[in-house]
Amino acid sequence: MKLMNKEFNEFVRRSTPLINDHFAELMEKVEKHQPQLARMMAYSFNAGGKRVRPLILLAILEVLGEPINPDVLTVAVALEAVHTYSLIHDDLPAMDNDDLRRGRPTSHKQFGEAEAILTGDALLTIAFQWLAATGFTAEVKATVIGDLAQAAGPEGMIAGQLQDIEGNHQRYTIEQLKKLHELKTGQMLIFPAKAALHIAKCETTVATAILRFVQNFGLAFQIHDDIIDVTESSVELGKTAGKDQALNKNTYVNLLGLDSAKERLSTVLNACEEALIPLVERGYEVSLLRGFLAYLK
Question: CATH no. for residue 53?
Fold first, then answer.
């Protein structure tokens, strides 16, 4: 991840091990009873992802002055577990049929197709088991569980994934593409913001600004992903480069052209900056949130 400043650098440096170590703690029971399954789950979870989604959760809570305790880390790990499951299934031959993820063989290449499906299933289901065991109030716990299920399910990521597949046979408009990515990518980036706001219980104006920031960040994140698919190598990406363009998939680059996609990214990043203004006006230090934007520049 490109780092914007020393504060954000330090935040990533100290927060990422917290997420990784907490995953190891939560997995101890699985390792004891199902060591092979635990090994397959850990292979994909620990494959070197940027941890963008859980880091958003932790960053927002830090901005709001909330402590990062084991329950918060459980939400972070559960979110990353659901994201990892989606990548495992996304790489399968019936989906994107990718051999490389984060610079390593994909799960089905490493362990087998059936094993990869079960590994993804295990990560998805155990995420909700972990959330149910947190010490949050019943209201916060139920809301967080419901929000994650909605973000990852048929009203969110799964719906977007289906639209992505259906788009292989038709050309979308930019608005249709934007809606697709709001579901496929955006909902799982908005979830950590919603979770942080449920935990912190901040005022409405602040909550609205944070949600607006993350909504725009989700769109910028996808446009950036479409751009680097054609501008970076497989080594730099950690996955097969140029695949979306080769398949003529619905992407911002394929619909707008590379230069126009870059202009659209710049516009959305400006909207992210504008969303932070109400937080600055209320005295919040937002350097951590701005640090995420550096990744997309």
Answer: 1.10.600.10
